[in-house]
Design a protein that fits this description.
Blueprint lengths: L2 E6 L2 E6 L19 E5 L3 H10 L5 E3 L15 E6 L4 E5 L2
Length: 93
């Protein structure tokens, strides 16, 4: 069973793969199940630091043209996606 680390405010979270009988060949965000995981990531500076480090850990910044306000003018966050299509939202607060 493989796992990939997710950085969140200096901590590592592990995401484990489900048993093959319970999964599809590819991730589809519109299927039942987890769409994305939102995490409180500390201050705006901490969100910026994590977003800058994310590509070194296999994550791509989503909505780069609207970052860090992709969620609206009062929502400071980094939206990230890994190679498997899983999304993480790092929220400042």
């Amino acid at each position: 069973m493989g796992a990939r680390a997710v950085l969140a405010a200096g901590r590592r979270l592990r995401r484990r793969r489900a048993e093959p009988a319970l999964t599809a060949a590819t991730h589809d965000r519109r299927r039942p199940g987890l769409n994305h995981l939102a995490l409180h990531a500390g201050s705006r500076a901490q969100v910026d630091t994590l977003a800058a480090a994310a590509p070194r850990h296999g994550w791509t910044l989503l909505f780069a043209d609207r970052h860090p306000y992709a969620g609206g003018p009062d929502h400071y966050a980094a939206y990230l996606e890994d190679a498997d299509g899983f999304e993480a939202e790092l929220v400042a607060g």
